[in-house]
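Lab notes, practical 5.
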Amino acid sequence: MEMLNGFLFAWLVTLSLATIAVAQDDQSGFISIDCGIPAGSNYTDIITGLSYTSDVGYVSGGVSNSISPIYQSNSPERLFLTVTSFPLGTKNCYTLTPAQGSFGKYLIRASFLYGDYDETGQLPNFDLYIGENYWDTVTISNASIPIRKEIIYTPSTDYVTVCLVKTDTTTPFISALELRPLNITIYPTLSKSLELYARLNFGTLTNQYIRYSYDAYDRIWMPFLWDTKAIINTTQDVLENTYKVPSAIMSTAVTLDPLTATKESVSFYWTANNITDRYYIYMHFAEVVELPVTQIREFNIYINDNLFYGPMSPNYLSATTVYTVSPGYGVERYDVVINKTAVSTLPPLLNAVEIYREI
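Output from the prediction step:
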């Protein structure tokens, strides 16, 4: 069983949209802030095509800095070259005013690369808040490694505040802050906030992460190399459902390797950070092989030995999302097992998965 780092009820999304997952160029509603660049400046990132602007006007009291030259050549993205730090005050907040206001649901991502910007070598540690609620703790353990914190948030006001809170003698800082509007119907939750635990692309052929412009919502999909599984793929586009997982993700999948498989299931697990944490899972499926009439791929999905969903047969070149509508909690480990049914002639497959923690 591969590690990803009666308590759940599953729901199914199969409704296909009229559009095929191709590269997107619509950034309407996006707020993309590169912290620390001069007031009034902006640019278009040459890799993603995203348009970034200065954080001046979104926050007050910050100090602009550039990361140390020894880290600049290794910076993976332009937005990590500068930071805004907050040596004064305990709590400093960015205020974002999205076009949809309190009627929207948003993906919000805060990014951090220390890069010894202050030339002290003191690795910062501070808290992150969304509105008045604790979001997460930012702990920098390596000056050259970027950290991203991501949340899906439904505000109760027309604005969103993201706050950096000083907790020790080190200074809070931030490299970038991004907001992306989502379809209000996706990622349903019993709370206002879902913190990203993992978002994984299975069956990747490139071992590269995928985001905008392929993903219309600018989710960042990390490749997951599953050495014990076989990869199947298609060169054709996969029709999106309301979750809009891009064809670049859904056109590949993992399944069992017929030469090495010792069982008829695809399985993985993750461990809870705290036994009281409440988790939501979203599994994305699409058949990428055109099956002859004599073949069938059908499976059941179990979580901690409880039937989560099934039986199901993924649709050919069309995305299906199976997800929780009430969270799982109260255990230290979550085991997901996708079992081939008795009538199935083919093993299960899995294209992608997302796991979120309720906060």
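Observations recorded by the TA: The longest helix spans residues 69-72. The helical segments are 69-72, 247-250.
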